[in-house]
Each structure stands twice: as C-alpha cells, then as structure tokens.
Write a structure and sequence with these properties.
It is a single chain. The chain is α/β, with parallel strands linked by helices. Helix content is 51%, strand content 7%. It is built from 27 helices and nine strands. The strands form two sheets. The chain has a six-stranded mixed β-sheet, with helices on both faces. It has a three-stranded antiparallel β-sheet with strand order 4-5-6. Strand 4 and strand 5 form a beta hairpin. The radius of gyration is 29 Å and the shape is globular.
Length: 555
C-alpha cells in the first residue's frame, strides 16, 4: 500500500437489508470509526447503541502504518462511518495531540474511492458522520474566483458573462468541501458534516449523548437524514447531504478527480489527462492545481526516463498555446503564492527554464515592492523563494526615501533578496515599539537568523536597552529562536533578568536560557540568581523559570 496511513473507500450504496424474519434477531450493524483525534464522538455512539445490535470496529491501529489492512482482510463491511479529527478544509483529518501520529489524507479517500480497493469495507455504507470543521462547507475553497473572472474578461468576455462562466464552472467542478465529500462518497444516502467550525470532541460527545437519550438508536443506519440530530447540532451548523447520484452534474468532476486518483491508471495516462486539462480554460486547471502538482512532484528521474512518460512530457512541453495561456494567467494572479505555484508548474512541464523562472519571480517581486499593505506573508514568501540566494540582486533595490516602499516590511522583503542595508534596518526593527514592525523582523529572522557574533551582541544590546514591556518581550522571543552559545550574549541576558522589574521579561529571558548552550552557563550560581531575583512565582504551578532552575540543578 502507498502512503503511511491508508483508508480505503468504495462507498456505493447497496440495497437496504431485508427486515428480520419474525422470531429472528435483527441483523447486527457495523459501526466503523476512524479516530485520529478525540474519541468522545465514538464513545457516545458506543454507549447508546445496544451491543446486541451494533458492533464497533476502530479502523485506526496505533503505530501501524497500514491500519486498514486487517479490516480489509477480515472483510469488514461498514453500515456507518464515524470520522473524528480536525479537518484543514481540503487535505486531511488530523489530531491536535502531540503523541498522535495518525491522520487521514483526503487524497487517500479519493484514490481508493476511484480505484475500487477493498470493496467490501464500504459496500453497504448508509451514513457518514464527519466530525471536523468545514467538512461540508458549501463555499469554494481555492480562492480562484477573482483570477478566473479577470482571465475571462481579458479573453473578451464581459464582466457579466465572466461571472456566469465562473458560476457554471464552480457548479460543475465542485471545489467546495461539501462537493468534494459528495464525490468521494458517491451513492451514500446521508453524509453529515459541519459548514463551519465544528464543536470540540467533549462538546460534540455531550450533544450526541442528549440526542441518543431522546431518540435511542432508531435513526441510526437507516439511510435517512435525521432532523432531530441536525436540530441538536444546529448552533454548530451541522448539515447533511447525499453522495453523488448517477445523473448528478458533478459526475464529470468526479471522473476528472479519478483521472488523478485511480491507482489502476498508468502515470503516462494521467499526464496525458493533465495535458488535455491544460488545453481547457486555465481557470479549470487552476482548480486542479494541487492534484497536478502532486502528480508532477511524483516524477523522479527514472520515471521521466520511461518512454511512455517521456513522450507525453515532450508533447506537453511543445504546446506553446497552453504555455502562453498559463503564463498569462499566472502573471495576472493577485495572489503571489498562487503565481509562484503556477510558475513552478510551468517549470516542471518544461515551459520555463531555471533562468526564465528566476526572471519571472524577480518581476513578481518588483511588482510586490510597488504595493502597499505588505505583511508577514510577503516576507515569508520572499525569503522562501530566495532560500538559495539565487535571486540576490535580481532587481534594483534603490528606494526613494519617504516612498511607499520605504518602510520596515518592504525593507524586510528587500533583505530577503540580499540587501545588506535593509537587513540592518530589519534587525533594528526588532527593538521597535511598533508591534507590526517587530513581527515583521521576527518573520525575517526565522528565515535569516543572525550568525555573526558581533551582530548578535549588537542585537542583544539593543533589546536589553529597551524599556520593559510587551515590545521587549516580543523582541526577546525573536532572539530566543537562536541557539545561543556566546558567553557575552548570555551574560547580558542574565543581567537583564536580574535588573528588570518585569516578570514577563524574566520569563522571556528564561525561555532563551533554557534553549541555550548549557556549557556556556554556570549552573548552580545561575540557579541561585534565578531563584533570588525572580519578580513573581507562577500562580498555581510551575512556570518556565521553575523549569529552568530544575534543569540547571539536575546537571
């Protein structure tokens, strides 16, 4: 099996079982659970469904990567599926518990839904309960709407025509979470999920308990949406829908999805579909960008050398008309991250050389410098794009004093592009009283930490000299992202701990020292200083200062 944790789905609706003959016990229903976060929902079902009529199968086996294999081998057939986990709105169900490694990738649901793997498991599925945020959100998730409208207008459509084209495209392609779940679970009569924020596990479990005490099990595994259950969760926006039917307009979208997800299709066949997709309107390909990039990212050197794959890639690379359409669309995108992804796709299919991609990125960053309202996201983008410093000096960094680009966030972007003058300005912003400027400097330092000892001492001196307060705490937190081993720097911070009147500043210093090189510290003298000079103890328990003292005295 491919992937770490596999979940195999074939959720076609089977005919409802015939009622039990008189005098015979009712058929035992199987409730399958996928618990990657809180077990509260599962346990509520278990408490209230009679053991003689329902059996439970937890599909997750902790520590086992192929945690559905045993269920498939045992030919488990689920009547009900309960999935409990946080949902990121598009890619996976996951846990917020640090010791839980299991997660449920939506791409695996698509893969097995399309591939027909493990057909017994969901062959008679009647209901799906998705306890995660936005699992049935009806709103489009990609944010591509404005891009698509502009592209259509540029091609000659009126604004009204472009809006109608977009509405038709979204309706057919189904880019909302709700549409995606309907495509994954075709034929299932009832799918429950949340249109926005879902309740936390304990709250959901409590609501389920009240529902079951009122209704019992008479609405479970019947294949009909329960108005009582929807009402019980109405404040949280629980909704229900059905899996795609045979004549649903989105069946074509499911067919497209399966061109990517069906493991029975050869890679060359999937690439040929990508080529065909890129010959449609680029906005349609934009909706499939995640899937296209996953496919292209799976092509290592041996795969690209395969004759069938190489032939399709050559045909794709020579399609000049599709190239121009995609590059025009990319250059018109108002979202730099999307523009970068489209440029990367153009590189991956052979439409841009490494140098041409560099020039395109440089042009994008020039345009970015002319914009107002930049923030941390743009700093992260610029530093990430130039992680290898290939874009250093890619465009003129001269900025007129007092212009819109003459501020800290624009300076941080230029610093990401190799400007030493703007790096110095960004580091000075770390000790600014302006919270936004400090956050910008923090973002920059995550990508470009201070490595020169003299620079680190100068930064530390500036932070130590700040007045005690929130700004100084934020600056210390940014400094704390460095692994400090310089004795002069650590001595300055220890003196700050001893002299400051602020307990918050002391805790921030302790947070730095606990991550610092302990060989540069004198454990017992420092532990005594921390104990004797601390401004206040934590209320009701240990704080970071107590933890640091314990670490020092254990050495």
């Amino acid at each position: 099996m491919r992937g770490r944790w596999l979940l195999l789905f074939l959720p076609w609706l089977a005919a409802s079982p015939a009622p039990a003959a008189e005098g015979r016990p009712a058929e035992v229903k199987t409730v399958c659970t996928v618990t990657v976060n809180s077990p509260d929902e599962k346990e509520s079902f278990r408490r209230h469904l009679p053991e003689d009529r329902y059996r439970f199968v937890e599909l997750v086996e902790r520590g086992r990567p192929d945690w559905l294999a045993s269920a498939c081998q045992a030919q488990v057939a689920c009547d009900v599926l309960v999935v409990s986990g946080h949902y990121d709105g598009g890619n996976e169900f996951f846990s917020d518990q640090l010791d839980v490694q299991e997660f449920l990738p939506v791409s695996e649901l698509e893969r097995v839904s399309c591939s027909g793997s493990c057909p017994t498991l969901f062959s008679r599925l009647k209901e799906v309960y998705l306890f995660g945020c936005n699992t049935l959100n009806p709103e489009p998730q990609s944010g591509a709407s404005a891009e698509i409208v502009r592209s259509l207008v540029r091609e000659g459509h009126t604004r009204e025509q472009a809006e109608r084209e977009l509405a038709a495209l979204v309706a057919v392609q189904g880019e909302a979470s709700r549409d995606r779940m309907r495509q994954i679970f075709p034929g299932v009569p009832v799918i429950y999920g949340f249109s926005a924020t879902a309740p936390l596990g304990p709250t959901a479990g409590s609501v389920l308990d009240r529902y079951f005490r009122s209704v019992g099990d008479r609405e479970i595994a019947r294949g009909r949406a329960s108005s009582r259950l929807l009402g019980a969760f109405s404040v949280f926006g629980l909704s229900s829908t059905q899996g795609l039917g045979p004549k649903d307009p989105q069946r074509a979208a499911r067919a497209d999805m399966c061109q990517f997800a069906d493991e029975r299709l050869a890679t060359a066949t999937k690439l040929a579909f990508v080529h065909a997709l890129l010959q449609r309107h680029v906005g349609e390909a934009r909706l499939y960008l995640d899937r296209i990039q996953r496919l292209m990212g799976s092509l290592d050197a041996p795969a690209r050398a395969n004759p069938a794959i190489a032939q399709v890639l050559e045909q794709l690379a020579s399609d000049g008309a599709a190239r121009e359409r995609l590059l025009d669309y990319a250059r018109d995108s108002d979202r730099p991250t999307v523009r970068v992804r489209l440029l990367n796709l153009a590189r991956d299919v052979g439409w841009l050389s490494a140098e041409q991609r560099r020039d395109e990125l440089a042009e994008m960053l020039r345009e970015l410098q002319a914009q107002i309202g930049l923030g941390v996201a743009e700093v992260n983008l610029a530093c990430t794009l130039n992680e290898d410093h290939a874009l250093d000096g890619a465009y003129n960094l001269a900025i007129a004093p007092g212009s819109l680009a003459d501020d800290v966030v624009h300076a941080a972007v230029r610093a990401c592009m190799g400007s030493g003058e703007d790096r110095a300005r960004t580091l000075r912003a770390l000790r600014s009283a302006n919270e936004h400027d400090v956050r910008v400097a923090q973002a920059y330092l995550r990508h470009r930490p201070v490595t020169d000892a003299a620079d680190l001492r100068a930064v530390t001196d500036g932070i130590v000299a700040m007045p005690p307060g929130d700004a100084q705490v934020r600056a210390l937190e940014a400094l704390g992202r460095h692994y400090l081993s310089d004795r002069d720097v650590l001595d300055r911070l220890i003196r700050l701990f001893a002299d400051t009147p602020s307990a918050a500043v002391q805790r921030a210093v302790a947070g730095i020292l606990i991550r610092a090189d302990k060989r540069a510290l004198s454990p017992e003298p420092l532990a005594r200083l921390l104990h004797d000079r601390r401004r206040s103890a934590a209320a009701g328990g240990e704080d970071i200062i107590d933890v640091l003292i314990g670490v020092l005295r254990s050495r």
